[in-house]
Write a structure and sequence with these properties.
By secondary structure, this protein is mostly helical. The chain has one domain. The chain contains four helices and two strands. The protein has a two-stranded antiparallel sheet. The protein starts with 6 loop residues before the first helix and ends with a helix.
Length: 144
């Protein structure tokens, strides 16, 4: 029984035999049923079971493929989200650097204007201008 049998070839042999056979008194039977009928029945049963097994295997394979596809998509989404998070993290870092530089420039401007006003190095009509500049940089509460 170590030889692998081809059930389709066996079924074809049986069908050919049935087509060409003649009723014989010496035909082998099992409980009154010709052996060839028994063999054909079981080959057909095997064919039906093979088809069902193939359908089940396909059903099992498809979810695996779908799961692998979904896993790949989830990994791709996670990588894209990580890239986006990295981009925004870097953009925030750059924004913070620029903000610190702007705050530094603003502080220097404020100090220069305050010094200019406190040292009376301006004309009489310049004071309202500088007071206005200071008030736009900082609200009244912050300058008092």
């Amino acid at each position: 029984m170590s030889d692998k049998r081809d059930w389709q070839a066996d079924l074809l042999i049986i069908k050919t035999y049935r087509k060409n056979r003649t009723t014989s008194i010496n035909e082998q039977t099992i409980k009154g049923v010709p052996v060839v009928d028994v063999i054909e029945y079981w080959l057909q049963q095997y064919a039906a079971e093979k088809e069902r097994a193939d359908e089940l295997q396909q059903a099992l394979d498809n979810p695996r493929r779908n799961l692998l596809f979904e896993l790949h998509n989830e990994r791709a989404k996670a990588a894209a989200e990580k890239d986006q998070a990295d981009y925004w993290r870097e953009a925030t870092r750059q924004g913070n650097i620029e903000l610190e530089a702007a705050e530094s420039r603003e502080q220097k401007l404020k100090e220069a204007i305050e010094r200019y006003i406190s040292e009376d190095m301006y004309r009489d009509d310049a004071e309202p201008f500088f007071q206005q500049v200071l008030s736009t940089l900082y609200p009244k509460e912050a300058t008092e």
